[in-house]
Amino acid sequence: METDRNMRERRASLPIENTRPDRLDTLTGLRFVAALLVFLYHSFREQHLVTGGTGSWLASMVDRGGSYGVGFFFVLSGYVLTWSFRPGTPSGLFLRRRLGKIFPNHLVTLIAALALAATGSAALTTTDWLPSLGLLQSWWADPVVTSAGNPVSWSLSCELFFYLCFPLLLPLINRIPPRLLWTATAVVAGLCAVLALAARYLVTDQPPLPYPGFESMSFDQVWVVYYFPPSRLLEFVLGILLARLVLTGRWVRIGMLPAAALALVGYAVSSESAYLLGVGGLATLWVAPLIAEAATADRLGSPSALRGRVWRRLGELSFAFYMVHYLVLTELRRALGEQWTAPVPVELLVALLALAVSLALAWVLYEAVERPVTARVGRRLRPAGALT
User: Which GO terms describe its molecular function (predicted)?
Assistant: First the structure.
């Protein structure tokens, strides 16, 4: 009987097109890890569910968790779309599937956010949240507009821009000769660094942000690096290039564990870096090898701790979880009161309760909205122009 090792070696010797799996379960599991980083950031850094010295320590540990998780999603999006794309796919079908993936969850959580804001007597005008309705809020250099409605949906504003660009970007990147793919990847990495430095030294730092720890920068600087869709497009392009490197056999394997260690080192480096250098594309570069290695492990059938049914299920719920968790946390904090404190074990239990409630609501949103709508819009359209 053929051993697992022999099977992996045989698969590795085959052309990649012949061993490209439809599912990338390890990457699906990693999606939940990224979403969990965002949850931890909002729980301990923004909502301060744990107070005192322990709370300060937790807040410092997850200080860049939100930006790291979002950056991971942006690279992953470019990678997965390129990996799963098949020549001849109608552009109309592609865009229909992408919009069907993000808009239903977005609209449901936006309605919920506006309803909760109204019950809390929040001062939110129509002009504040209206750009969010069409996922256009990240194009506004205004902190009120970018965070209006369901604040986490700003990243979907970027994703929508990526999806619209993908039919144009993929044919261009496919024309890059395989021998030049690493050069193109290095150029994108360099542009991420240039962007971060330009935001820090060329964009005005006035007026300063009125938040502790952010007084040395303006929202314009943060917006250029973090929210502006063309800036974040660099990470999406990085994901496309990574997929091309793997598909053309140009990716140099380092193994899952070293790639994971590199991502952890990158998180530590970004945490110690100045804000404008420690968020956005420059910080996201550290997770790129992990994405490529995880996909390669799935292709070869290599052992993976994140390929089990539980991790796969959590990964499937990750988008819905991402969309509901902030609403749960803000409502929980409002119910507790700004001055609420308790012994650390109790505060941690409250954080776990918030996680459990978020996952439960994510399951409802996934089963009632995301999965049925995604299945419906995935049906093939009649005629449309091909992507390539």
Answer: acyltransferase activity
Both ends of the chain: CA-CA distance in Å? 43
Q: Which amino acid is at 200?
A: R
Handedness of CA 110, 111, 112, 116 (dihedral sign): positive
Peptide bond into 207 cis (omega under 30): yes
Residue 186 has pLDDT above 70, yes or no: yes
- Residue closest to 87 by CA, chosen among 289, 245, 296, 247: 247
Q: DSSP code of 207?
A: S
CA distance 149 to 142: 14
Whole-angstrom Cα distance, residue 320 to residue 313?
Answer: 12
Exposed, middle or buried: residue 374 (CB in 10 Å: 0-12, 13-18, 19+)? middle
The predicted structure's pLDDT at residue 217: 95
Q: How far apart are CA 237 and CA 250, in angstroms?
A: 17
Does residue 134 or residue 87 have the better pLDDT? 134
Phi-psi region of 213 (alpha: psi -120 to 50; beta: other; left: phi over 0): left
pLDDT surpasses 90 at 61:
yes
Amino acid at 109: T
The label of the residue with tokens 């119910």 reads 335
243 near 79, Cβ under 8 Å?
yes
How far apart, in Å, are the Cα atoms of 117 and each of 128, 164, 289?
13, 31, 40
pLDDT band at 17 (very low <50, low <70, confident <90, very high): low
CA angle centred on 157, ends 203 and 93, rounded to 5°? 140
CA 73 and chain centroid, separation: 2
